[in-house]
Amino acid sequence: MIIKVRVIPNSKRNEVVSRIGSILRVKITMPAVEGRANEELCDFLSDFFDVKIFFFPPAKRGKRQRKNF
Fold first, then answer.
1. Residue 46, φ and ψ in degrees, nearest 5
2. For residues 9 and 32, what is the distance between their CA atoms, to the nearest angstrom?
3. What residue ranges carry the coiled-coil annotation (predicted)?
């Protein structure tokens, strides 16, 4: 399964905002500096989907707002 995510860093809380087509819009509290937002996103998505964090491999995270897991 591939999950397409659009990340919005520096938000007030971690939450899934909406789904546009097949893309989830996710707000994350951490800034997009040194991969902190990516780590927070993976933690949040692993809790949201109730899976272990290793389902989100680091090589696929990238530095863009749009990510595929």
1. -65, -35
2. 6
3. none
Alpha-carbon span 34 to 15, nearest angstrom: 21
Which residues fall within 8 angstroms of residue 46, CB to CB, at 6 or more apart?
52, 53, 55, 56
Residue range 37-68, pLDDT digits in tens: 888 888 898 898 888 877 777 645 566 666 76
Tens digit of pLDDT for each residue in 10-37? 999 999 999 888 899 999 999 988 888 8
Question: Which residue ranges form the domains of the chain, and what is each CATH number?
Answer: 4-68 (3.30.1200.10)
Residue 51 CA to residue 58 CA, distance in Å, equals: 16
Q: What CA–CA distance (Å, rounded) separates 3 from 30?
A: 21
Answering whether pTM is above 0.70, one says: yes
